[in-house]
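Closing statement on the iron/sulfur cluster sub-project.
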Amino acid sequence: MGVAQIVATVLAGVVTIVAVVLAVRAVMSMTAVIRQGKPDPARFTDKGTRTRTMLVETLGHTRMLKWSTIGAAHWFVMVSFMILFLLVLEAYFEVVDPADGLPLIGHWVVYGLVTELIAVLGLLGILYLIYRRQSDKNKKRSRFTGSTMWQGYFVEAVIVGVLICGFLIRGFKVANDTFEFPGWATPVSHAVGALLPAAHSGATWVALIKIFISMGWLITISLNVTMGVAWHRFLAFPNIFFKRSPEKPAGSGLGALRPMMSEGKPLDFEEADPEKDQFGVAQVEQFTWKGLLDFSTCTECGRCQSQCPAWNTAKPLSPKLLVLSLRDHAYAKAPYLLAGGGKDLTGEEKATAEQLKGVDVLALAEAERPLIGGADEMGVIDPDVLWSCTTCGACVEQCPVDIEHVDHIVDMRRYQVLIESSFPAEAGVMLRNLENKGNPWGAPQNAREDWTKGLDFEIKRVGEAEDFDYLFWVGCAGAFEDRAKKTTRAVATLLHEAGVDFAILGEGETCSGDPARRIGNEFVFQMLAQQNVETLTEANVKKIVATCPHCFNTLGNEYEQLGLKVEVVHHTQLLQHLVATGKLTPVQPIEGDVTYHDPCYLGRHNRVFEAPREVLGASANLVEMPRNSERSFCCGAGGARMWMEEKIGKRINVERTEEALATGAKTIAVGCPFCYTMIGDGVTGKGEQDNVEVIDVASVLLRCIKGDKAPA
Ligand code: SF4
Ligand code: SF4
């Protein structure tokens, strides 16, 4: 061991000890912050599925690969990061002896081949990601807008640096004739070696540089615990493991909303007490520990942002920036919380002055910030951000580390609505109508069956009919809203034509509760849902067909939380089945192309993409919009946005309508009464109502079967 090796070994040892000590401290501090969250016992179920899903999603990159080349490049970077760990370990042996390698496997030609291959592909991958970051970052409303760019550059530079060092070390070994792998297994290393001079300690010094770069990275991320772009390499594993629904292939936070929880238990409003139970989230520490883990894991990749309809129409909401604001706030407030600080449910400070004596003044100031509040109050999340969300789920769908944005947004809404009574005033009418009339429009209950007038066949009512196969859930829009009533009549006619035995609840039906739940009024949701659960249980309903994807989602996914498990299909699924089994036969395709707009609560939230397309494919020539299926763009009505004014930025329905019109289709088919209204209004707003028609999938099919005789 020469002088160079002794000096290099000492330096490598010192920097490594410093880095490891700081890393342990950082992990302990992150764990302490995450543990400030509320309990969430449901995250520990079914560990087998959780492990499988975590391995498939991380090692298989199932979410990232949807982004084709970027996903593939990131996969190689991830694998090379794992291999890098071995190469960095090897560097410690090379510092001591420049001709040495990793013990046990380090002399095996397969090791030489695999590390060489992965290093080359990892280098190409990271260079591609750097190129993409550079080319995307200046685009208008880029996915990187608001990301901490130096952190991304730093991580990318570290990976490039370590990989290049790896080739230089091997190159020096080649030049010194101490490299044991053949040229066919390590061609790049041999090529680099051909350019380098023979230098006995060359590999030692480069190995030391490699260790310095790696430990510099570890020190930097340890001093920046909110550096998600680096920490996600570790946190993505637990975050995916503890996702809400591990059995779901995509978007754990899609479909049902979580019930309102207090101390890890669902709240029942018959017993809930706002002085003892937590109603939604008013302070960052009132999120569950999984929420805080979500915020810590965000990689700042901006995929959620790039898909968000609010962000894409110049509204202040970006799901990425929302998550980053919550993360930064949680970590800045943490010293105060860890000292015992925090407010109880009545707003009183829990800690004594003595406990808070040593807390940093910045943490104390952070603790005073309201979670929801405008810039004048130094709020963490602006109310315009909170209320811009349509709960479309595009963010959840795209997030590679399974962050559950929609749950967090609705939890914050719940506190605002239930405790603060603070929400867009215009939505108050809808909530009052739900409470008093059982529907958002405030229409009289005895008008629920008006849509049946003029039909040339009888519709069974539950109660009158002894038995039926399907309950046809009409929904409030389907019963009261003029355009949606056409869909209701079309579906009823088609079911009748196909000989499906169905009945309706008529005046026994009330709103499913979706708009109340999405706006955050869990009390009204539970009231309506409970009433429907009792009605459906009494009627012994086993199968439901619904035309509204919001009802479809609520009845099928959320009533289970109130004890009702029932099979629910969307009308497009039932129609697809009836066409496929020959019970309905489209005879005359409609004129002109048809494009289909995926409703968020049918498509993304419930993965029904094919059934409506198959019905349309049998009835017309279907042309797709650029954003379709899981990447479809919201119409702007979800999340109770249907009942709020849209004052900021471009209207979401206009953005979507322009996309639909650009296909040149003569018909825009929808599968949701709210999409019907939004896209219909968009077409009228563009003055295209005489050229382009907006109708439901069911009406398209009915026309193909009945032609001009189809009821309007
Ligand atoms: S649910 Fe939709 S609107 Fe809401 S933040 Fe996510 S992408 Fe944006
Ligand atoms: S997609 Fe997920 S990881 Fe990426 S910025 Fe959004 S929340 Fe963060």
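Residues 3-34 form the longest helix (32 residues). With this model delivered, the sub-project is considered complete and its resources will be redirected to Aim 3.
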